[in-house]
Amino acid sequence: MLGEATVLWADRGYAFYVTVGELWAFTTGWNLILSYVIGTASVARAWSSAFDNLIGNHISQTLQGSISLHVPRVLAEYPDFFAMGLVLLLTGLLALGASESALVTKVFTVVNLLVLGFVIISGFVKGDLHNWKLTEEDYKLAVAGLNDTSSLGPLGSGGFVPFGFEGILRGAATCFYAFVGFDCIATTGEEAQNPQRSIPTGIVISLFVCFLAYFGISSALTLMMPYYQLQPKSPLPEAFLYTGWAPARYVVAIGSLCALSTSLLGSMFPMPRVIYAMAEDGLLFRGLARIHTSTHTPIVATVVSGIIAAFMAFLFELTDLVDLMSIGTLLAYSLVAICVLILRYQPDREMRNEEDEVELQEEKIPETEKLTLQGLFCPLNSIPTPVSGQVVYVCSSLLALLLSVLCLVLAQWSIPLLSGDPVWIAVVVLLLMLITGITGVIWRQPQSSAELHFKVPALPFLPLMSIFVNIYLMMQMTAGTWARFGVWMLIGFAIYFGYGMRHSLEEVKSDQPSLKVECSVSRSQTDKYNLHEFFSICRLLFSSSTTPLALWTRRSTVASAVPADAWARDSKMDSNDFRFMDFKETVENLIATDISPNTPEAIDRLFMDIGNINRGSMAEIQDCQIEEMAVNLWNWAITNKMDLVINEEQKAKVRHVACKLIRMCEHPDASEEAIQRQILMTMKTGKGWVDVGNVALADDFFQSAMTSLEQLYSKLTQRSPTEEHVVMQKNTVERDLLKVLSYQAEAAVAEGDFQRASSCILRCKDMLMRLPQMAYYLHTVCYNLGIQIYKENKYEESCFWLSQSYDIGRTDRNSVEPEMLAKVLRLLATAYLDWDSSEYYDKALNIINLANKEELHPVGLFLKVKILLKSEMANQELFQTLMEILHFGMSLNFCLNIVKLLVDHERGSIGFYFLKIICEHFQSSEDTSKAQLLHIDMLLQRKEEMFAKEKVEEIIIGHQTGKPLASELIGYFHSIIWKQAARSFEVHNFDNALHWYCYSLRFYAADQSDLDLAKLQRNMASCYLHLGRFDKAKEAVIKAAQRDPRNIFTQFYIFKISIVEGNSGRALEAIITLEYLLTTEEQHENNASTKRSSGVMLFSLAAQFALENGQQVVAVKALENLAKYSEEPPQVLTALKCLFRLFLPRVSQMPECENKKKEMDRLLAYFNRALLNLTQLFEGEAWTLASKINEAHWFRKTAWNLAVQCEKDPLSMREFFVLSYKLSQFCPSDQVILIAQKTCLLMAAAIDLDQGRKASTAFEQTCFLNRALDLICKCRDIWNLLKTTGDFSRDPCETLLLLYEFEVRAKLSDPLLDHFLEPVWELPHLESKAFETIAALAMEMPACYPSIALKALKKALFFHKRKESIDVLGYSKCMHSLVNLLVPDGVPNTELCPMEEIWGNFEDALIFISQTEGYPEMEILCLMIKSWNIGIFLYSKRMYVSTEKWCSLALRLLNYLGSLKSTYETQVNILYSELVEALEKNKRSAFNEE
Fold it and tell me: Any long-range contacts for 673-677 (C-beta under 8 Å, 24+ apart)?
């Protein structure tokens, strides 16, 4: 297939964005994917069949017998597991980075050709011409000679053409896959020496060779055996078996497998590349474009495409796959032919890009070229234009449609046509006439004259013939093939419309601001890399897989066209770190890779580095290499995809770098082309800097462009042979000079240098005598500058630019139409008017008169009236202008707008008079009523209410007696009436408001269910309520509810009526319904925020109304909704305060019960909402700081009081204390607030600690204790701050915090508990009681820290002794605890404390007893018993000396007993005597005990 080398470097191989757009690009790519997938599946099926035939068909027989799909004409006879496994195996190899070996490919190709020649020669040697003359008798003999006749094909009619011409076409359509891949010859046009000759020759020769190969194979096969006995799955081996050459069967089969293997890998290799390209463009899912980091292959695309191909090879027959592949290829080639046709007639891209298209900043200038019927057949231009290109585009689309219909008729209704049916013949003739006419239109359009390496000849006839043949072959396909193809296309379109259309690059770019068309610099001939890549991709995209009949004509080298690292380059940018590259490497990587987030960083680095680089620093690089680098960088900067990542400033930086590189290579002997290129680049770079506001850099490039222009002019004049040639060359230079001067003017305007800008434009204006074709361009430049300056309110300068625009434009009326000149003049008049100086009003009036002469436009007439009003023109002169407006036939709406303008400028008298004239002038018009309504509106604005009512009555009577208002005016009428009613309502004139509402009501039909009627009824109900007419109000509300029950205002008025009637239940229902409507319907409406604010307002009014009428329960519900849905913190806080005032008296009087608990929870929720809104309030600036603090104090104190009242509900008390603390954080941290915060936290921590002690589970205990610990830490911070404000030495807070924290940590088994206590032991202010408490807590279960308890008790005893007034009772209790710790159950705990230390503690106690009075007798008794028991314990351990010591201590303690001494003295003495005797008996042992 032939193509044109028009698009030399597309972003993707399927380069159809350029011509037919994104949808057809997707369609082509999707069909190419189908071709590759089906090609892979068909070759895999063929491989499996050939191998199965080689081993005696064991695989097929086994699968048919065990697993049969039983879906004829849809699926294969049996699932081909072998083919599926083969595809999956090769998919895995490709995913791992395997690529074809060139040597293996060449060897297989040679084997292909050898086997091909062998088959053709053998076939002709062993062939029998009788097989081309078979008859029905031969077929019957074949049937009789076979046991299994299922392998026989149909006979047809016998003979040489058994299936007729239709069979030939059907076969050609099926075998179209064989004639693909020749497009790769066309892609080598740039490498051919004579492409115009060598490319067609190469394609024709290749086609002829391919034809000979297929012709030879087909002839050999049909000569070797009857055609109806050929085996479709493996014909060649079976043919040799039939002729008796059984050994040759294996040779051919092995050759087939070799060819199939090459073809299979060649089919699979490019398949994921197409998917990858489409996914990268966003047309398919982005995940398919993921590149494997190590193998650099598109891993996801490879696996997905392989699975799809394997699935199809598994389920479908070979013939079905071949047909499906052919139809997809035919459609893709048809699209390519259409693109060739369209491209040839499009305007040349380089010519278009050289001309700057100046964008208008207000209205688009009308196209100078218009499409006419004469222009279709006799175009005015000899070169393509946008209009002619669009004509060809539309005509090509129509031709494609008509050719499709023609082919359908010829293929499906051929019998009626051949039989002479007049209807079908007329249809065909009509289609041919239309096709011929449209083809003639295309033929008459100018073709592009751009020099290309190769052009398709005979346009438009050759592409149209290609389209016709392709579509006709497609129509030969079976219905099943079309059904499968339709399913494939449905899946594709579902993906495109569901995903691709929203994620494609084209869609993303369409969201970006439109940019001016940039010019592209031609690439250097040395840029071989990108061209090679483009050619390779083209070869892949237009090649296709083959089936068994095409095995040896397949060019296997196609698959290896793309280098293995192509995909690696696609994702290289992501891994590049530009900070560690030199300048040249950075440029090369930037150009070679796709856009990525690192791109801006690379651009910034290039821009910074270029200032420090000169030709000397790049001496190792040749000039041609620097130029190539600059040109590639420039072309990269102007591609459309740049807009997605980098901004205009970064694009300007890239062009800046490219220009600097080009200027490094400039020299006096530079060619004219090089100078022109430099001029173009410097101009564009300077313009880019102007557009981003960097005028200083722009001026440098403009000066460089000026210098290059002088150099170019000198060269041109030196080589010009004649004077005429000198003039022509001078015009060429002056044209570029004019552009540079216009750019300099724009730069001067940006700098605010009006003098320099005007000087540049005036120079350009002088040049127009020699360059009249540039008038339109310069006119537009001045117009844009005028608009730009006007927006900056610089009216004097704006007037200058607009005047210049008009002066220049009127010199070239062929290009600048009167409409454009009138628009310039209107803007100029507006500028003079806005100058706001009476001396310019006359100028404005003269200019607008001139504009109206150029083009009579309503805007010009309106502006003229405005100028007259502002210049305080007399009514008589003004009236003359008004009459001119009527004379010019302006519309009624325009005239009414003039009336409004007159009224707004306090010319009401003339406005009313003009309105009367308007009504008379348009009395036959149906729009007269609009003038009457405007009259009413103006009367009401002037407060002439009586006259307005008379006019209203006239309109109502006319409406009811046959002169109805137009439907669009009825809304205007109601608007006027309702506005007046609203004015009366605002001044509390409710009777008058009702009167006006009644006017509106009379316009509604009784059965009309209009929502506006419901609104009217609600407004009337409001008036009735204010007047105390409750029955009328209720009646109006009922009517409103019938028409609009789901309106929040309807429910509000139902609520008000219910409150007035005392029906609190109905009022509550209305509030609940209002809340439901507010929450469920707002998400479905566009004005949800407005509706929410209205609902909140209604809740506020409802609460107020309910309280005024004594309905507290209803008021509470309204206030709760107000607090819930309002987004204004002050409003929420006010509602919450009202709720607290309503609830607190009732809650304080309630007994402790479940209901009170619920009410407390309700109050807690109120406080949490108050806390949230206080946070928002302090972040805003609505209130003063003092007001905010007062609000916080009120809620803090309320929470404190509620906490105090919750004595029997500790959990609620805790929550209120915490809330009080949180609310106090909004208040200034003075001493009072700090004390309150400390108390709240301390109380809350105590409650949590107590709940932790009572917790039933370990988890609950842990939660409570952790919460308490958090509160303790916060309280300690506040306590430390509080101590700085005064003397708090008597405050027990620090001791409590210490004890609370110790208990929490002990119960949590804190491993750092000892570390926590280290500073505690050294605290001087702690009392003995604190240490005793620590000791008790240390031994409290589940904690058990005896060492800490021992240390604490010793500290406590120490502090007891230090006191001036010793607390004997306290000391005795402390000693008791210590003794119980040291001697539990009468046995000394020597692990905790050695015996000597235990003895010392007992002696200390004895000494204290002997020195003080009042020691409790029971404590002395306890000490005595403990010491006696220790002695007995030691006796059992044969420690006799210690026994005597401890027992003697018991006797000494006995002496200090009081009343109990007599009770224990006798018994203790007896026991002691017995003990002494026992000790005497063991005297010897006693001496040796220790």
Answer: 674/627, 675/708, 675/711, 675/712, 675/715, 676/712, 677/521, 677/631
Supply 1320's token pair. 């505690």
DSSP 578: G
Q: Closest Cα partner for 415 from 425, 404, 402?
A: 425
What's the CA gap between 527 and 533, in Å, rounded? 11
DSSP code, position 966: P
- Residue 842: CB atoms within 10 A of its CB come to 12
Sequence-distant (6+) residues with CB within 8 A of 170 are 163, 476
Mean pLDDT, range 1139-1166, rounded to an integer:
83
Q: Which residues contact 1263 (CB under 8 A, 6 or more apart)?
A: none
d(CA 300, CA 409): 43
Residue 868 CA to residue 864 CA, distance in Å, equals 6
Torsion of CA 278, 283, 287, 291, to 10 degrees: 20
Token output for 625: 């290499």
* Token reading at 1300: 């609370």
User: Which segment, 446-455, 918-927, 1367-1376, is predicted with the most confidence on average?
Assistant: 1367-1376
DSSP conformation class of 15: -
Closest C-alpha to 158, from 136, 179, 143, 175: 136
For residue 668, is the peptide bond before it cis, meaning its omega torsion is within 30 degrees of 0? no
Query: % helix / strand / coil in the chain, to the nearest 5?
Result: 75, 0, 25
One-letter amino acid for residue 834 of the chain: D
Residues 261 and 264: their CA atoms lie apart, in Å, by: 5
Is there a cis peptide before residue 460, judged by omega within 30 degrees of 0? yes
Gap between the Cα atoms of 1180 and 1173, Å rounded: 11
What are the Cα distances from residue 364, in Å, to 358, 558, 746, 819, 822?
10, 50, 20, 11, 13
Element containing residue 92 per DSSP (H, E): helix 81-95
Q: Is 1299 exposed, middle or buried (0-12, 13-18, 19+ CB in 10 A)?
A: middle
Residue 1431's alpha-carbon distances to 1179, 1379, 1386, 1441, 1448, in angstroms, are 76, 15, 10, 9, 9
Q: In terms of Cα–Cα distance, which of 1395, 1401, 1317 is closest to 1357?
A: 1401
* Tens digit of each residue's pLDDT (9 = 90 or more) over 1435-1458: 888 888 888 888 888 888 888 888
Structure letter (DSSP) for residue 1393: S
Which amino acid belongs to residue 874?
A: A
Joined tokens for residue 30 = 């999707």
Please say whether the beta carbons of 321 and 45 come within 8 A. yes
With beta carbons less than 8 A apart as the criterion, state whether 826 and 844 touch.
Answer: no
3-state per-residue secondary structure call for 663-693 = HHCCCCCCCHHHHHHHHHHHHHHHHHHHHCC
Q: Which of 192-196, 332-336, 505-509, 1114-1118 is predicted most confidently?
A: 1114-1118
Q: CA triplet 297, 300, 306: central angle to 5 degrees?
A: 95
Q: Give me the pLDDT at residue 593, please.
A: 65
What's residue 1096's pLDDT? 86
Q: Given this model, what pLDDT does residue 1267 score? A: 92
Q: Which tokens belong to 752?
A: 């605010």
Question: pLDDT tens digits for 762-804?
Answer: 988 888 888 888 888 888 899 998 888 888 888 888 889 899 8
Phi-psi region of 284 (alpha: psi -120 to 50; beta: other; left: phi over 0): beta
C-alpha 663/C-alpha 705 separation (Å) is: 11
At 481, list the tokens: 């093939």
Spatial distance between the Cα atoms of 1213 and 251, rounded to a whole number of angstroms: 98
Residues 6+ apart with CB under 8 A from 1230: 1285
Q: How many residues does the chain have?
A: 1490
Q: For 624, what's the count of Cα atoms within 13 Å in the CB-facing half-sphere?
A: 4
Of the candidates 571, 577, 575, the residue with the CA atom closest to the CA atom of residue 594: 571
The separation between CA 495 and the C-alpha centre of its own chain, rounded to angstroms, equals 18
For residue 618, give every residue at least 6 positions away whose Cβ sits within 8 Å of its Cβ, in sequence order, or none. 583, 584, 626, 664
